[in-house]
């Protein structure tokens, strides 16, 4: 049976008048059996040539259809192979623009030697807001200007990577070394296809390792927090309530070096069971609690006993002292096998902190060489 024509019904609504329908006649010359709706095209099969008779777009409301179809590079009336390179290249063009999170081209119908294609697209989300964490107000304003990501900006594949590079450069210029920058996106439940960007930064003022001394009763609870804040070495007290082995394990799992400390009243032997597990032992040369106390020289035998035990076992463990350390006792500490000297009040109370640090270092190194 031949189909001479098909009627197309168009609904028209005029204000104040009930809707009515217009009927138009579209001549067709194909046989009924030549019309294939939603054909299943095997891309493993032999290509066939068709004339592109129609091109439509679904899934995107942000752009006019003629703009979207124009991006494909396909032209009504052209001859193309199905499957073939023309459609493959059209898909690549859409991906190349970076505006879409989904691209697919399917055949709506085939009428004889003519094919009607549909382009299925989904646009990448747009930014509905940016939340900054770890920045002062002035820094946030400068960062917003530097990144150039505004409300309404469309998320592209390289946008977040580029933003991290720009943020890292900004922090380097400000003197923050090894700043940790995280930019993540989460869906904005109040908007259509919109996301909120969370910008988080952990700034470090120095590339020198950060040795964090936790004088708290339950250090195990806070290991992850201090590690995240940038600690390189975490020291806890053997006298604390947390299990020493579990605490050391948590410190290593957090990517930091474990160190254990003893107060003046705790014997050296209390540390011995953990020497193989730690990277450093801290011997307190004052009672913990406040700065400015006098150096307790009677803690040197304890430090020497710990150093001798480390040497006896052939371990690579540093010994540190903290409390009342100055240029006057630095040599004594070094003579007793101490590697690391912690000084607070002496340095910050000096008229020239840099010179004081140099003096402490020089006296200790001289004793090492003696």
What does this structure look like?
The chain is elongated. Mean pLDDT is 84; it is low at 1-33. The N and C termini lie far apart (111 Å). A hairpin with a 6-residue loop joins β9 (180-187) and β10. The strands form four sheets. A six-stranded parallel sheet has the order 11-12-13-14-15-16. The chain is built from ten helices and 16 strands. The longest helix has 17 residues, at 353-369. It has 370 residues and is an alpha/beta fold.
Task: Jot down its keywords.
10 helices, 370 residues, disordered N terminus
Find the structural class using helix and strand composition.
alpha/beta
Distance between the termini: 111 Å
**Secondary-structure element sequence?**
EEEEHEHEEEHHEEEHEHEEHEHEHH
Strand order of the largest sheet: 11-12-13-14-15-16
Mean of pLDDT: 84
Number of helix segments?
A: 10
Give the biggest beta sheet.
6 strands, parallel
Shape: elongated
Helix content: 25-40%
How many E strands? 16
- Strand-residue fraction? 25-35%
In terms of per-residue confidence, which ranges show pLDDT below 50 for 5 or more consecutive residues? 1-33
What is the alpha-carbon Rg in Å? 36 Å
Strands, helices and their partners?
Layout: E1 5-14, E2 17-27, E3 35-37, E4 48-58, H1 65-72, E5 79-82, H2 85-97, E6 100-111, E7 114-123, E8 126-133, H3 137-147, H4 159-174, E9 180-187, E10 194-202, E11 211-214, H5 223-228, E12 233-237, H6 244-253, E13 257-262, E14 280-284, H7 300-313, E15 318-322, H8 330-335, E16 340-342, H9 345-348, H10 353-369
């Amino acid at each position: 049976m031949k189909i001479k024509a098909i009627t197309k019904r168009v609904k028209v609504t005029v204000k104040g008048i009930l809707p009515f329908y217009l009927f138009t006649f579209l001549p067709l010359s194909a046989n009924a059996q030549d019309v294939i709706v939603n054909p299943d095209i095997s891309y493993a099969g032999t290509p066939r040539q068709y004339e592109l008779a129609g091109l439509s777009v679904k899934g995107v409301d942000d752009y006019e259809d003629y703009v979207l179809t124009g991006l494909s590079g396909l032209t009504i009336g052209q001859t193309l192979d199905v499957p073939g390179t023309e459609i493959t290249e059209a898909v690549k063009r859409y991906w190349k623009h970076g505006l879409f999170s989904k691209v697919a081209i399917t055949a709506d119908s085939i009428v004889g030697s003519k094919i009607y294609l549909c382009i299925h697209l989904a646009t990448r989300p747009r930014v509905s807001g940016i939340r900054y964490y770890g920045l002062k107000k002035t820094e946030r304003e400068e960062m917003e200007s530097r990144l150039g990501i505004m409300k309404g900006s469309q998320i592209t594949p390289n946008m977040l990577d580029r933003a991290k590079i720009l943020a890292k450069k900004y922090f380097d210029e400000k003197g923050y070394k090894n700043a940790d920058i995280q930019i993540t996106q989460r869906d904005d439940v109040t908007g259509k296809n919109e996301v909120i960007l969370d910008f988080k930064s952990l700034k470090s003022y120095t590339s020198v390792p950060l040795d964090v001394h936790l004088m708290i009763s339950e250090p195990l609870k806070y290991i992850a927090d201090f590690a995240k804040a940038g600690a390189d070495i975490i020291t806890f007290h053997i006298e604390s309530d947390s299990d020493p082995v579990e605490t050391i394990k948590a410190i290593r799992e957090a990517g930091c070096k474990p160190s254990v400390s003893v107060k003046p009243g705790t014997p050296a032997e209390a540390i011995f069971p953990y020497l193989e597990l730690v990277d450093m032992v801290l011997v307190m040369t004052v009672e913990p609690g406040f700065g400015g106390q006098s150096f307790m020289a009677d803690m040197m035998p304890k430090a020497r006993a710990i150093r001798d035990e480390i040497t006896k076992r052939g371990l690579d463990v540093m010994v540190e002292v903290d409390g009342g350390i100055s240029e006057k006792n630095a040599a004594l500490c070094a003579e007793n096998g101490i590697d690391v000297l912690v000084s607070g009040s002496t340095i910050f109370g000096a008229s020239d902190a840099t010179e004081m640090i140099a003096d402490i270092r020089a006296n200790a190194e001289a004793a090492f060489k003696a």
